[in-house]
Amino acid sequence: MDSPSDPTQEQPLQETPREPILNLPGALTAYIALIAAIHLRVLLPDEWDNYVIDLFAFVPKRYDLTLLDAAFPGGTPAKLWTFVSYSLLHANLTHIGFNILWLLPFGSALARRFGAVRFYLFMAVTAAGGALAHLITHEHELAPMIGASASVSGAMAAAMRFAFVRGGFLSFGRGDADAAARVPALSLASALRNPRVLGFLAVWFGVNIVFGVGDLTPGAEGASVAWQAHIGGFLTGLLLFALFDPIPHVREDAAPALPSESADS
Questions:
Q1: Which fold has domain 26-264?
Q2: Which residue has the higher pLDDT, 244 or 250?
């Protein structure tokens, strides 16, 4: 007969399960849920749906000083809110899915790092940066622009500042999701000297220009792709990241061994 187990006998340690790297933080889940809820507008009669687009989409022609405010619904206040509200509207489920696909890794890391308030403000600011770039390059354009691509691009640019750092979520030696999102970021100058960051930049700009000029973006359905807005959002996120980042950066002169994983190779 088996003897009862000795409570003093050593038991094997059980490893705490690692949190999945793509387990969505609440801020990103709420952002995606908001986009999905707003897309229910497609269930409205066509004239109502068109009114929602006219009221909340970004239309460069709205800023034509030769027109009266009454030419577009919302008047002068809409000239302000459409810099952000357009980013919550989408053409179809494919359009939403394509943006969410890129938000899963990059938006998750950014939401964990920033927290909800900073994350939402950052998405709004990068949306505005994308709208401004679109306005500059499409003056007097009457076609409405919608979609979160500029904000998604900004999130990708911001995440790039810490994604390749040792322990970051795109590094080989990453930790759990929270730890990977909170590693000290590279300074902008260091990021622009990092081979992995430069490679990411080259691929990102190349893909956006090819897909944008060729109208190949999934969900566009023949509509013109506002690739200039993507670039505007990306540059806004890249340049303004430090204003939102709550994690202290590593001083290169104080800790030269930590800046990036490239030191390992």
A1: Rhomboid-like fold (1.20.1540)
A2: 244
